[in-house]
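Quick one: structure tokens for this chain, please?
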Amino acid sequence: MRPGDNVKPADKIIPSCLSCLLWLIFTVMPVTSVALDTFADTVSYFGGAGDERTTAVASDDLGNIYITGSTTSTGLPGLVSGQSGINGAQDAFVSMLAPDGTVVFSRYIGVANAISIFEEQEQGRAIAVADDGAIYVAGSVVSVSGFAGVQTTAGAYGGCDNGNIDGFLAVLGADGALRYLTCFGGGAADYVTAMTLNSDGSVTLVGYTHSDDFPLTSLAFQGLKGDAYDASTDAFVVRISPQGMGADDLLFSSYLGGAGGDRALAMTDDALGNLYITGSSSSGSLASAVSSDTDSLSDNIFVTKLAPDGVAYLGPAYVRSLPGIDLSYGGCTMGTGIAVDQLPGGANSQRLFITGRQERDDGSGGQYSQAVIASLDVSGDGTWNLQTLSGSQDQSGCGATIGHGIVLDGNGGGLVTGVTMSADLPAADVTGPGAYHGGEEGFVTRFDADMSLLYTHYLGGSGDDAGYAIDRSATGPVRVAGSTASDDIQDTNGTPAGGVDVLSLALNADADLVVSVADQGPALFDEPMDFDLLLANDGPDSSEAVVFELVLPSDFPGNVSLPLSSCAPVATGWICPLGTLPSGTQVTLPVQLSSPQVGNWSLSYSLLGSAYEPHPENDRGQFDVELSSVLPLQIVDGSKGAGISGSGALDVYCLYLLMAIFSYRNLRYPVQTV
């Protein structure tokens, strides 16, 4: 994974469709059963006989896929040696899949016979892959003092017996073998939600805690929980070096919070190692230093920046807030995904992109909520550039639409995934394969550098579905992870295993190939007509293996030549392999046409590549070629000269004769027929 793409899942904001894991590994999309493969390259179900919910996804440059989440299945596919089944009613799990979606290995992480009230809290929440192939997984497991918890590895920082719920960090080899596992936390519940890998081999983890005795280090920038009330939470920042040195593995730990409730829900880093955290906060003391509209009684989306060592808290100058309203619906406003883009201008020139949900006042005493995509210049004045995603089911209370994960596309824009119950989200596909199918539905929305929405595809079938996490490696496609209870999605690998399964997709790139014809004036009848076809990619991504094809009608009596070196004649016309057509580029394709006969013919064309095409009407169709004699007036003899007589009659007849001798060719284009 690359700096800026380390996007982590949301807090426990899981809709009622916890039953099915939709795992989408994207390369971009359109939908009967439901065919997602128009915009997705590979589609695969994954799971056992129970329910799986994936909450985080990562990928490597070879195209392998890594997922974590929770499962109730007694036997996941591809269990590692030494594991025969689930430890309790629900475990965290980690699985590696090959690029085609086949299972490489699976591993459970959980406690046997855990106290049922806490069992549902065992889940993986963050995953990342190091350059050496090591797999890092973090989340939460049941941990009760005096109770035999998860077995840690030798030399781990701490045991899994601190309180109700502990955070955990595990390191696996590329074969799924456990190299390191430690737990950390205080006497109450502690939840890990996000993670980044650091250049020195250490790991930074964030989350939130109910514990007022959370383990801290001497360098902590906040040594006390902001609110001692157990039901309230503070965010935390922890850095661990998984070296097996016991207590020395804990490099840094601090609270991050104020007098209200604060939760860190997502984190990313930039190329310099700076850390950016987002989540929810109702503490005015955390966010009000630079945001005059922060209300300490409201939940707010907050973002804060830490120095590369994770220890130096850069303070109020690097805290920004996007406000919500009151807590009447349990805290709807939250940042759940974050990504960072480096801008020209130096070390402090970054643009942050955040997704989540924002609750707002409807102006008449009620509330509504909306999913948000927000961007913010770190060195700016704190002004947010906001794009909203809401539909007809989001008009009251804590609505049904929320963005969970965000990833950048390398062109200044990005993609967001989440869940909704609205069939009319902005820029939604309403009739194609990416259309809404009912109930809770996952979605992916793409936006450009100006925050304009390019499209929204719904992800799922007839059951409840959701998108929770999204990732992109340096060389691979975009991948989305979520949940699905739908068994009617056409897939390329595997079948539904029962209950809620993981569904994985590798999305195609997004291009928008366009063919147009340059203006062409008349030509003499006995000379070839030259004109240009303009082949452009107006989409956000490159399209590979682009091929232009020109098909001639079988009765065309003349000759057509495409004098581009890559073009070659075929039985039906011409084929021009063009290779890769990058975003924003245009190729000029010269055409020469001649015919010994007059007439009208339709020439068909197509411009196709590997990327998904949201506007296929632009890259295929036809244009008409008309070769005709020009006779504005009929030639007649002198006695029937249409009233032309006298000394000027001869001149007019000469003009008629000249116009009859010459012809012109007229190119009429493009008649768009798909």
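Residues 649-661 form the longest helix (13 residues).
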